[in-house]
Design goal:
The structure holds two protein chains of two kinds. Chain A is of the alpha/beta class. In chain A, 49% of the residues lie in helices and 14% in strands. Chain B has helices at 23-38, 72-76, 81-86, 102-110, 134-141, 143-152, 158-164, 176-188, 192-209, 211-224; strands at 3-7, 10-15, 45-50, 92-96, 99-100, 113-117, 121-122, 156-157, 169-171. Classes of the chains: A alpha/beta, B alpha/beta.
């Protein structure tokens, strides 16, 4: 099966998404290891996460899977300045390319978000720093349990530049945050504090700075100590209910339209700046233009 | 075992011990009593008073399994206890205190309003009562909170229960019955037809949201699972 991404990105993904299994505690750790890019998820990294999840599903000794990140933040979301193998660089992508990107590599049924949502093992997101964009609405929010450090910031920050898209159009976020919660955080691109995310029902546990790793380790080991049969049953119970609630459906996102098909002048400027000077330069430009505080 | 009294337009059904202690007969008796209240023109609301559901010394993993068996049908079938409460035609209020788990916890979840003593702890029923309704838990607590409750094994105390929406009012034990009576009296001032029509609409919303589907199919998951505490008799539907 064809896998997209440059050769360099494909090779790098094996060290950018690490996997460690502690069979004695029945806990596996998937670690995002691209701290220089705030763990931005390239297309090969997303494939690797899906592959690792499938391997861990088949490992009878693994009962819990923890997602965590190295460096200052959990993840800044999907890599947006990437040549993943689409035909040349066009100002306007075709619907076919957009569908391929979204359905196979990002938001759709073949994406890593669906692999997490449908995983039969218990999944935990260990959040510190920023958990933004796709790492919020496709990764962390698809996990069963979310534990965050008190200084963490979570949200669809990209909504400020690209529209709310997935943050408001996701059924699972509506179920988690409530309709108004999903609308407000999505349309404003709010970077929720850990406390606010806890109040809204997204994050179930907030721990003081410096205690995150130990807290998640303890939680994962406690759950991992329970019988495989019980945990598989409880996860099946959840997934069954989620299918009824439509909480596992792939994201329907307006990003498909705005990002790939037709850009407003603001979006066009943002992406032009990204291609010319990188994401950091584009974000700085946005701050200068709009006075954004984050 | 259960005792029913009527005060004004409110029926009070006191259940002094674990609901499954009298087995099938006890469950059916309670279900029939609630259904009779629904067709009594003089009644507007039903209060189920649930005592501590298990003795204090019992822990989650040592829940007694020597109670008489109870069929899935009597608990989780369309005319079973759970659905009679969840889809009642009149408001059902549950009053709980102490350790609330198993069937008692589910009745609190499925009822319209719950009033709790300040000593209450709600223990997830999902491991022990396989036909527990996860959709209802998700809609009531919100999705991720329901998942935490189900997977972590952490009980929910009174203060958290109010914050999560599982409980609508908390009172000190000495004042608990009075608090419940106040709430029941407020409901009693609403016209009967209005209450019934409101419940009809709410029940339709529950179905649209998938509560009914979860009731229908959760029994399949329970029957497929071998568990020493699963309350089901062989061959029951």
């Amino acid at each position: 099966m064809r896998r997209f991404g440059s050769n360099e990105a494909k090779q790098a993904a094996t060290t950018q998404v690490l996997c460690d299994v502690d069979h004695s505690s029945h806990v596996a750790y998937i670690t995002l290891n691209r701290p220089d890019k705030r763990n931005a998820l390239s297309v090969p990294m997303r494939y690797r996460m899906t592959d690792l999840l499938h391997e861990l599903e088949d490992d009878p000794e693994v009962r819990v899977i923890v997602f965590r990140g190295t460096g200052p933040s959990f993840s800044s979301g999907a890599e947006i300045n990437e040549d993943w193998g689409q035909r040349g660089k066009h100002k306007r992508f075709t619907v076919e390319q957009a569908y391929l990107y979204s359905a196979e590599m990002t938001w759709g049924r073949g994406g890593f978000g669906q692999a997490i949502a449908r995983c039969p093992k218990v999944t935990i997101a260990q959040l510190h720093g920023y958990c933004a964009a796709a790492s919020y609405f496709l990764l962390a929010s698809r996990c069963d349990l979310l534990v965050a450090e008190s200084g963490a910031r979570i949200g669809a920050l990209e909504a400020r530049f690209m529209g709310p898209a997935a943050a408001t159009a996701s059924l699972h976020l509506v179920r988690i945050l409530g309709t108004k919660g999903a609308n407000f955080t999505g349309y404003t691109g709010e970077a929720m504090t850990a406390a606010r995310a806890n109040n809204l029902g997204l994050i179930q546990k907030v721990v003081p700075e410096g205690e995150l790793e130990a807290a998640v380790d303890r939680l994962a080991r406690d759950i991992g100590a329970r019988s495989t049969g019980e945990l598989l049953f409880l996860k099946a119970r959840i997934r069954f209910g989620e299918s009824i609630l439509h909480a596992n459906v792939p994201v329907v996102t307006g990003l498909l339209m705005s990002h790939f098909l037709r850009r407003e002048s603001d979006e066009h400027d943002f992406f032009s700046t990204v291609q010319r000077g990188g994401v950091k330069e584009a974000l700085m430009e946005e701050r200068r233009r709009h006075g954004a505080d984050e | 075992m259960i005792e029913k009294n009527v005060a004004g337009s409110v029926a009070w059904i006191d259940i002094p011990g674990p609901l499954q202690a009298d087995g099938e007969r006890g469950i059916r008796s309670l279900t029939d009593e609630i259904r009779d209240c629904m067709v009594d023109d003089d009644l507007k609301a039903v209060v189920l008073v649930l005592a501590d559901s298990v003795p204090e010394t019992a822990r989650r993993d040592t829940m007694p399994n020597d109670f008489p068996p109870v069929t899935l049908r009597s608990l989780a079938g369309p005319t079973g206890l759970y659905e009679v409460v969840a889809y009642s035609s009149k408001p059902v209020i549950t009053q709980v205190q102490g350790t609330c788990q198993g069937i008692a916890c589910l009745l609190a979840l499925y009822s319209d309003i719950t009033v709790a003593g300040d000593d209450v702890t709600f223990h997830s029923p999902f491991s022990h009562v396989a036909d527990s309704n996860f959709v209802m838990a998700s809609l009531t607590l919100r999705h991720n909170r329901a998942k935490w409750w189900l997977l972590s094994g952490d009980p929910i105390d009174a203060r958290t229960a109010v914050r999560f929406g599982l409980v609508q009012s908390v009172a000190e034990l000495a004042d608990l019955r009075n608090r419940t009576a106040e709430i029941a009296a407020r409901i009693g001032r609403v016209p009967s037809d209005a209450l019934t029509i409101s419940k009809m609409n709410i029940n339709a919303c529950l179905d649209a949201l998938g509560v009914g589907q979860d009731f229908d199919t959760s029994g399949l998951l329970g029957a497929a699972r071998e568990h020493p505490h699963h309350l089901a008799s062989k061959g029951a539907t």
